[in-house]
Amino acid sequence: MKENKKIHMAWFVLIACCALQAGGAGTLVNSAGVFLSPVAESLGVGIGELSLYLTITSLCLAFSLPIAGKMLTKYNIRILLSVGMTICALSVAAMSQFTAVWQWYIAGAILGIAGSVIFIITSPAIISNWFHKKVGLAMGIAMAFNGIGGAIMNPIISSAITNLGWRNGYLVMAAISLVIVLPFMLFVVRFKPEDVGLKPYGYEENKQDVKKNVDTDGIPAKIATKSMPFYLLFIAFGLMGYLNGYSQQLPAFGASINMPATLSAMLVSLSLLVSVGGKLTVGALNDKYGIKAVSVTGMLIVAIAFGLLIFSNGNYTIALIGSALYGVTQTINAVAVPLITRKAFGSKDYSSIFANLAMGQNLIGAFGISIIGVIYDKTGSYNANFGIGIGLCVGFIVLTLAALSSAKKLKAETNH
């Protein structure tokens, strides 16, 4: 009985995942947008041309994800994540010395390859291993720190750029990311509880709930990855990846309507703060209303956000509200997407299936960041981009609903 009163190690592993999200994607990815305008201006290039390095990062990340999924189970997780994080930080630090756009392209490729074990699948995979009970809550908390890290770091990095220059800004961002992440990767994180002789949280306490809430008889990966619902979600998650790319362009959008630099940085911070609240509540909403209702409602809110940004016409208040509502995109991307995957295919081969779907998410989404920048360079406005965003929201809803309906039939056929 005494043992049951102790804090389960799963919660400490969750803290490590929070640090990984805050210092990894939250800092190195979600804060990258504040560099686009000052760096492009300094180099005398277009934002679209510079943004291409982010596309290269996403492409390399996408193609590396299946390999990363296998590496997570094959190698010591502490060493793997520590090395991967160090390489990511050094790639960003190296940008402080660059003088030509092609150098960002090379660093972006390295960042994407190393980031495949940091940014996307690792925290959901670790949490799925460590939690049988409250997995939705744990997932929401961990992924919320992606937004928390970005919300905090965007104004800090923006201030560093203003006061120290963009070159020193890259050094500051790289150093902070390492300080946040490395201690937890070296001393706390473990891939699964069996590595330290434990059972997942909730496994012994409530076995009936585990059987009820976790579909251990899910669809095998070899069947799932060749099925219609997989193809539909592959495209739907790709659209979500494209939509996620707008966050990198928000500071440049602010600059395009003559917002002060600090206020432009707040566009991203507000969107990330909203995403934090969404990530913390989406698990509970999913339990009460179902993932279909949560996803559809969330995407309608994002569509409204794009509408507000179109009709803001330089009104800073409306632009800030639109950017804040856009933050729901991060909630759907970080929490709802893994839950949709689990709903569609169960948990039997969840990590493998999710890694392949995440590849599609980044593969299609990789082009979003640079395409958005190119469209802006051609039109001189972000309105066309925001109109496209509304269409993508509708596309995600239609494809996801179709995939879940198809997956229900596939489950019935597979179980028989």
Q: What's the gist of this structure?
A:
With 416 residues, the chain is mostly helical. It has 20 helices and no strands.
Textual characterization of the structure:
80% of the residues lie in helices and 0% in strands. It is built from 20 helices and no strands. It has helices at residues 2-5, 9-23, 25-29, 36-43, 47-74, 77-94, 101-115, 122-130, 135-164, 166-187, 207-213, 221-224, 228-244, 250-256, 261-289, 291-311, 316-326, 328-345, 350-379, 383-415. Keywords: Membrane, Transmembrane, Transmembrane helix, Transport. One of its GO terms (molecular function) is transmembrane transporter activity.
SS element count, helices: 20
Distance between the termini: 41 Å
Roughly what fraction of the amino acids lie in strands? under 5%
User: The biggest beta sheet, please?
Assistant: none
Global Rg: 20 Å
Helix-and-strand structural type: mainly alpha
The residue fraction in helices comes out at over 70%
Regions with pLDDT < 50 over 5+ consecutive residues?
Answer: 205-215
Coarse morphology: globular
Pattern of helices and strands: HHHHHHHHHHHHHHHHHHHH
Count of individual beta strands: 0
Domain Major facilitator superfamily (MFS) profile: 1-408
Protein name: MFS transporter
Keywords: Membrane, Transmembrane, Transmembrane helix, Transport
Transmembrane segments: 50-67, 79-98, 104-123, 135-157, 169-189, 228-245, 257-277, 289-311, 317-341, 353-376, 382-404
